[in-house]
């Protein structure tokens, strides 16, 4: 997995992105989430990498500050942007099932 800080179920941003991670964890027991650490004050720390321990696919989710939409979703399967939590969940789940 891309180097980052492990982002567990108890780690919350306080925004809609928390709902996305909760749904993915409910669907996949082997989900791993890592948040890219902020190394400079101007860096964006609203970037997460998501993968299943059993799979080789790694997804990237970017959000606005506080985990707010829009969400930019990326994988080898494509790239999408959405303001909908439900749409983000559906797309990420479909990519994780590959």
Brief summary:
The protein is an alpha+beta fold and 98 residues long. The model has no long low-confidence stretch (mean pLDDT 89).
Protein model, in words:
The structure is a single chain. This protein is an alpha+beta fold and 98 residues long. It contains two helices and six strands; from the N terminus they run E-H-E-E-E-E-E-H. It has a six-stranded antiparallel β-sheet with strand order 1-2-3-4-5-6, with helices on one face. The longest helix is centred in the C-terminal third of the chain and has 12 residues. The two termini are 17 Å apart.
Show the helix and strand layout:
Blueprint: E1 5-6, H1 17-27, E2 31-35, E3 47-52, E4 58-64, E5 68-75, E6 78-82, H2 85-96
Antiparallel strand pairs: 1-2, 2-3, 3-4, 4-5, 5-6
Helix pairs in contact: 1-2
Q: Based on DSSP secondary structure assignment, what is the total number of beta strands?
A: 6
Please, how many helices?
A: 2
Low-confidence sequence ranges: none
Q: Globular, elongated, flat, extended or rod-shaped: what is the shape?
A: globular
Beginning-to-end CA distance, first to last residue: 17 Å
Task: Tell me roughly what share of residues is in helical segments.
Answer: 10-25%
What spatial order of strands do you see in the largest sheet? 1-2-3-4-5-6
Average pLDDT figure? 89
Let me know the largest β-sheet. 6 strands, antiparallel
Secondary-structure class: alpha+beta
Q: Could you give the order of the helices and strands? A: EHEEEEEH
Estimate what percentage of residues fall within beta strands: 25-35%
Radius of gyration, in Å, reads 12 Å
């Amino acid at each position: 997995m891309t180097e980052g800080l492990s982002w567990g179920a108890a780690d919350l941003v306080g925004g809609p992105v928390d709902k996305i991670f909760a749904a993915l964890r409910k669907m996949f027991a082997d989900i791993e989430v890592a948040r890219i650490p902020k190394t400079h004050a101007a860096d964006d720390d609203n970037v997460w990498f998501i993968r299943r321990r059993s799979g080789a696919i790694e997804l990237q989710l970017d959000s606005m500050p506080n985990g707010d939409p829009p969400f930019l979703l990326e994988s080898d399967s494509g790239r999408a942007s959405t303001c909908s939590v439900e749409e983000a969940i559906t797309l990420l789940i479909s990519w994780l099932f590959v």
